Each structure stands twice: as structure tokens, then as C-alpha cells.
Amino acid sequence: MNKTVEIIGAPATFGQRKLGVNLGPDAIRYAGIEKRIKAIGIPVKDSGNIAVPKLDLEKFNSEQEGLRNIEEIIETSNILSDAVSTSIEHNHFPLVLGGDHSIAIGSISGISKHYNNLGVIWYDAHGDLNVPEESPSGNIHGMPLRVLAGDGDERLVNISDYSPKVKPENIVLIGMRDLDEGERRYIKEHNIKTFTMAEVDRVGIKQVIEETINYLKSKTDGVHLSLDVDALDPVETPGTGTRVLGGLTYRESHFALELLHNSNLITSMDLVEVNPLIDHNNDTAEQAVGLVGSFFGETLL
């Protein structure tokens, strides 16, 4: 890493229905992320949080027709896209702190315009590949990757005035253990490289990451890592809103991020879905900071 890491907070909670994930960026800061990265010898610029629309609690808690909070998500995505694009123009490494996973629409929209063939590693319990007609909840945090691949509501698909942001063949899913029927069908139809937890159990996280690196390195000119803390087992990371048992361990995730660091493949990163309101003593934010340390090259000796 020979770039300044630019921390950009995206304190948005509009993609799902649990309050608190908007506090995630500051919980991660409180857990010491800037100090942790600087201790490795990497310069850090914390650009604070982007301005997001005001949270209307009455609307947020109401039953809404169609896609929930779509106007707020469009506004947030455009602002975040601009902030991340500017970071890349300054030759920084953008590290975006969410917020729920819908913020990836904005972050990856700002990143992909700087690459001809962006790859995306989606480290998550979920595929986030739903489209509106297949989503009974209307929660957009279950749709961002499909939106970025060019399917879904046109207002979201065309954030930053271009689409798609990522090709299905440049996506790798890691940690999958909760996929809807439409998502499974889309993955099969587009032959998306997918490592379910059964596959992680079978071959081990080392082989999973090595296969991911080999799959992406020859056909992409940049790779974005979008890490949802619910990829980890909720026993270890309880402070997240969509928990699914049987996830990746903290140690497996450390090793995965160490391997990704050594690959020199990753050019930008999201860290999302930390919710301190449902956490224990900010443990999940602290775990997230530890993982970021491994990703940026922290070693014991």
C-alpha cells in the first residue's frame, strides 16, 4: 500500500428497517480504525461523514409502497459516488464505512467509472441480488449488487449516469448462506463465481481466496472489496441487523484479508452493516477494526 487511505463515512440506514446502522461509521472510528491503520505505517485521511438526508422516523417506521426510502437512497448514492470518485482522483484508497449495504450503490458507482473492468468481491452472508418484483420487503440493502450489475429500478441503476458498474463475470461471492430463489436463479444463469459456506467448509478459506485472486487478477484492472460484517458468524459479530448462523469465523476472516493484502489486488473497500445499537460493548466495531488491520498488512512480528 503506497496510497493514503481515505476514510469516508456513509451514515445511512435507509436500505433496511433497523435503526442504528447509521451510527456504524462513528462506532468504527471510536474503535480506533484511524490509529490502527496509521500504526502500520500507512497515511490516513479521515474525510468525515457525507451528508445524508434527514431521517424522518415517521416515514422510516411506516409501511411503504414499493422500494422503501428510494428517494433518500438515490440522494445518498449520488453524494457518495461523487465523494469516492474524488478520492480516487486524488490517488487515495477509498475506505467507505457504512451504513447499510445499500451504500455500495454509491461507492461502487463512484469507483467503477475509473476502471475498464472493475472486479467486486462481495464478502457477505447474502447475495444482495434481488430485484424489486422479487423482494417482498422492498428493502434496498438486499438489492445493491444486482443494481450495480444493471438490473432493477432505473433510477438506481443509472446513478452517476452510466450502467452497468460491474459485469456478472467480474463478481465473486464469498460466505453465502442465505439466498432467495431469484438470487439463486440469477447466480446460475450468469455463472457468478460463488463460494457458499458449504464450499468454505469443504476446501477451506485459503483455497477460496486463492481461487478468487486467480479468477479476478487476469481480467480486471481494479477490485473492490465490499465486506458486510454479517459474513461472520453472529456469535462473533452480534452487532449487525441481518444475522445468519453458521458464518465465517473471525480467524478465517483475518486470514482471508491477510491473503487479499498479499495479493495487492484490492483497490477500494466498503465496510458495512455495523449496528452499535444492537451490539455488545462495541464488540462488532472492534472486530471490524481488527479485520481492517489485517487487510492493510498488520502483523504480529
TrEMBL record:
Pfam families: Arginase. This is Arginase. Its EC number is 3.5.3.1. Binds 2 manganese ions per subunit. Its cofactor is Mn(2+). It comes from the Bacteria. SUPFAM superfamilies: Arginase/deacetylase. Belongs to the arginase family. One of its GO terms (biological process) is urea cycle. The gene is rocF. Mn(2+) 2 binds at D124, H126. Coiled coil: none annotated. Pathway: Nitrogen metabolism; urea cycle; L-ornithine and urea from L-arginine: step 1/1. InterPro entries: Arginase, Ureohydrolase, Ureohydrolase_dom_sf, Ureohydrolase_Mn_BS. Keywords: Arginine metabolism, Hydrolase, Manganese, Metal-binding. Mn(2+) 1 binds at H101, D128, D228, D230. GO terms for molecular function: arginase activity; manganese ion binding. It catalyses: L-arginine + H2O = urea + L-ornithine. GO terms for cellular component: cytoplasm.
